[in-house]
């Protein structure tokens, strides 16, 4: 009970930590999200002999703060994942993206420092990419049929099938080898069901300079009749699924046929919550 000479004081360690992290980030200058700057970040950590390379970071699009994240593994690697992801998307350019980051020496795992920052910035209406799919990797087979919200990252910035597929080798090769090369050479996930028969199928790759669309057309023409390649808004899958339609698909490769599809979406204000961004490892088959 309060009086003129007494009251109650509640100490919030987590709020204080969140405020200190935000203040430290606020003193930093944003840098373009480029490979060169990430290499410099790595060199800084080596030069200062940091015991841990984990930390927190912010991403900006133009002058707007759009994402707050953490890196349990080296910060440059996590930021490099984002660089690669954005490079394979439509409606956005890496030239728009800048970042700030803090190496966090203390072990704050238990209090989740990025969640403290998210709580703070969300109150001001910032960080629209948090909890809308940006931080996720492969969501897994069970979510392939999910209908996305209209403001989901993948709906706003779908994958670019006109982007060059890196890591290709010209010439005759096994389909199984080509599939792995495609997976390794795209900036978005390509998940495929493995099959022993792919070791027996030979494919001729005419050029190392092919787009994702061109190489998927090439592969689809070699697949058995019951297989298809489905380009979803955020990634590509290939399964023996007898031409199943996926709500968020916008292009199918079925044999020599390429079929355009209008993806479904839910209103941005739908009540169901998006799953938390995660660090789930990508998988090739389920």
From TrEMBL:
Biased composition (Acidic residues): 273-286
InterPro entries, per database record: GIY-YIG_endonuc (IPR000305), GIY-YIG_endonuc_sf (IPR035901), Restrct_endonuc_II_Eco29kI (IPR018575)
Origin superkingdom: Bacteria
PROSITE patterns, per database record: GIY_YIG
The GIY-YIG domain, residue ranges: 52-127
Region annotation Disordered: where it falls in the sequence: 259-286
Name under which the protein is recorded: GIY-YIG domain-containing protein
Protein source organism: Streptomyces thermocarboxydovorans
């Amino acid at each position: 009970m309060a009086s003129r000479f007494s009251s109650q004081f509640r100490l919030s360690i987590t709020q204080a930590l969140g405020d200190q992290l935000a203040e430290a980030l606020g003193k930093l200058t944003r840098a373009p999200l480029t490979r060169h700057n990430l290499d410099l970040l790595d060199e800084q950590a080596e030069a200062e002999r940091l015991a841990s390379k984990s930390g927190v970071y912010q991403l900006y699009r133009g002058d707007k703060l759009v994402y707050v994240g953490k890196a349990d593994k080296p910060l440059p690697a996590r930021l490099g994942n984002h660089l690669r992801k954005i490079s394979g998307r439509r409606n956005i350019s890496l030239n728009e993206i800048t970042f700030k980051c803090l190496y966090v020496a203390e072990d704050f795992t238990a209090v989740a420092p990025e969640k403290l920052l998210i709580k703070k910035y969300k109150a001001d209406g910032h960080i629209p990419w948090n909890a809308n799919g940006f931080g996720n990797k492969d969501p897994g087979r069970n979510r392939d049929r999910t209908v996305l919200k209209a403001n989901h990252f993948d709906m706003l910035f779908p994958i670019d099938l006109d982007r060059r597929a890196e890591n290709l080798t010209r010439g005759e090769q096994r389909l199984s080898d080509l599939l792995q090369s495609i997976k390794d050479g795209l900036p978005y996930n390509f998940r495929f069901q493995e099959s022993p028969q792919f070791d027996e199928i030979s494919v001729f790759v005419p050029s190392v300079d092919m787009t994702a669309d061109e190489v998927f057309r090439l592969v689809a023409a070699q697949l058995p009749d019951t297989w298809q390649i489905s380009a979803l808004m955020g990634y590509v899958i290939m399964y023996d699924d007898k031409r199943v339609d996926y709500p968020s698909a916008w292009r199918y490769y079925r044999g020599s046929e390429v079929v355009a599809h209008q993806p479904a979406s839910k209103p941005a204000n739908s009540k169901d919550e998006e799953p938390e961004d995660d660090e789930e490892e990508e998988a090739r088959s389920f």
